[in-house]
Amino acid sequence: MAxxxxxxxxxxxxxxxxxxxxxLSRYCREPNDRKxxxxxxxxxxxxxxxxxxxxLSPEYGHWIALNMAATQGHLPSVSYLVDVHGAxxxxxxxxxxxxxASRGHTxxxxxxxxxxxxxxxxxxxxxxxxxxxxxIARLIEERMG
Length: 145
Hints:
mainly alpha; single chain; Serine Threonine Protein Phosphatase 5, Tetratricopeptide repeat; elongated
């Protein structure tokens, strides 16, 4: 039996799922466009709901939602997608780790590493260093051994 998806609220100071995503209809030429537009604009909750409605394939949808959540630093969503739905932390060449490392989301990087992120570690470390996120680079280098 499939585990139902739930909407995890983003922080109140984050407008992505409030103003930006409420106004997606103006970008849609076809009724089915909204799912892709939501994904493009980083509307995490809507993307998660689109997976649960069967509008996005679980493999693609999990990666998109995980990548968005990791890049945005939304730890509860990353945890939910990985722990409850088994989203693959290494999908699409480890881009979720790269996104979190580039934005300085230490807790998200730690969670991804604890859940087996091991693809693109050298690149993620370099991204973290380039953006002055030294603690993240250290965590990744520890994982590399």
